[in-house]
Structure formats: C-alpha cells, structure tokens
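Section 3.1: Structural characterization of target chains.
Under the original work plan, the team committed to producing a structural model for every single-chain target entering the pipeline before any wet-lab resources were allocated. The record below documents one such target. The sequence was received from the expression subgroup and is listed exactly as submitted; it comprises 316 residues.
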Amino acid sequence: MANDYDRGRLNLPFVGIATFGKYPYQPDWDALDADVAILGAPFDFGTQWRAGARFGPRGIREASTLFAFGHAGAYDHEDDVTYLEGARIVDLGDADIVHTDTTQRHANIQAAVTKILADGALPVVLGGDHSVNIPCVAAFAGRGPIHLVQIDAHLDFVDERHGVRHGHGNPMRRAAEQAHISGLSQFGIRNVSSTARDGYLAARAMGSDILSVRHIRRLGVAAVAARVPADRPLYLSIDIDGFDPSIAPGTGTPSHGGFLYYEVLELLAILAARQPIVGIDLVEVAPDYDQTGTTAILAAQLLLNLLGRILHARQA
C-alpha cells in the first residue's frame, strides 16, 4: 500500500518555488501560525572586502530543496529519531532592504524579528553579512537574560573603525553592550582576524569565552558545551566562515583551519537538547564564490538538522 507521500506529484527538488525546505510561504506576517519562521536578510553593505552575501538567502533556500524531497520528516538512524516530522515551519520571505541605508535596513530587520517573537515563533534569519545580527539581537530587548553562542572565524568585536559601528566587524561588540545579553561564547576564532588584541581583551572583560578550533578539538564538544551557561536561553549566530573553506568556500572572508560539519552540529545538538534556543542567524554565505553550491548546501543542511533537534527537544 502506498504511503501518503507516494501519492500525487513527485515534487522533485528542482520543481516549484524555492522556499526554505519547501515549507509554506507566508506573505501575511499578521497571520503567522508556526513554531519556526524563516526570514531572509539579504544585505551585504557591511562587508569590508568581498560582497555577495546579499544572495545568501536565495542560495540557501534553493539548496534546502535538496532536503525536502521524498519523505515525511528526516529519519536519523544513529539517533533513531524522525526529525522535522510535522514541523510547523513557514518562510516569510525577506525583510525590506533599502540599498546603502544601513539604519533603515536594520530597522526593517529588527521589526520583522520583533513580529516573529511577538507571535511566539523561533526566528531563523538567513543573511546577508554578519551585521544583520545587530538588529536581530536588538529585537530581543526585554527578553533576557540570553546567552549568545557565536560560530565564526572572526571575533567581530570592533567597537568603531573610521566611524563605522554597524558593519560586519562590529556585531558581537554591539551584542555585548545589550542589557539582555548576559555573555558570549565565541567559538572557532582563529588566525588572522578582524579584531586587534585590544578587542580580545575587551571581549573577555565584557563576558566572552573565546575558543579557537584547535582549543575545541583538544577539549571535545561535550566539554565545550559544558562551558556554555546552562541556566538561560541561547541565541545562536553562525557565520559560515567558521567552517573550513575546503567545505565552505562560498563566503567573503574564508579562513583555513575551520570546523567540519559534525563538529558544529554535535555541539549545537547538545545545547539544543539541554536548553531553549530562542533565535538563530546564519550569515555570510556568498554563492558567487562557490560554483559547486556546496556552501549553501552546508548551510541548509546544518539549519534543517539543527531545527529538527530543537523541535524534538521541545516535544520531549
């Protein structure tokens, strides 16, 4: 007897509209009825070198269709769990991006995330450069204390450079200044960086725990997870350049010596099983630098597996 998903259209990955994971598109933000809301933030005017992350949300959405075919949910034989079964996920499209106007762009992203939170859904924001994290975190004002976990090659803790305070080198400094952010775990930081030594001193003074990829491999993911405060909700900010460019070349500032896929998934899975995840952004995917599409596929695969674990933990 045929299963329900064997009936009707085959709906191959390259067929139809490329929403995230082929989940429903919801253009009416006043009718949001979901556990997870996907929002694009296609802005890359905060970059200091190679632009192109404005196409990240579109690239991630297209790549995500690969994982939306032929099954109801996603069975993981290692965990013996079918993740994402019955998941209430919607794609809201993108925040309105006003070219060259960082202030209005930030306001539009913040307003969208605020709307998602007011409706009780988990905001998942697809960047865009890492400056889009600034309005995302600002939207959580009054909802703290929240601990921020960053996966990144770069510290992004610059206070001000030539008057710039809201570029993609500033977001973690801006986050640390927020009253509702109680501290930061900055994981994967390595090699030539966007922040000078005084930035590291300032970050630690403002409550940051900074670990490189080599530190994390020596400690192991369970020990690293144990360093993250377990008594408060978490916001996750994932810069794709936290991964090694051998698997994630499609980004503006690649840095060798990065994470591999399972290192990050296993760390985030421990956190998701242990405590609430209240917000996610994944940034700096720039498809033009990755002709194979593997970077966008990595981003989509990580997000879908992470969302599966977050929703499963809520049900459990």
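The two ends are 31 Å apart (CA to CA).
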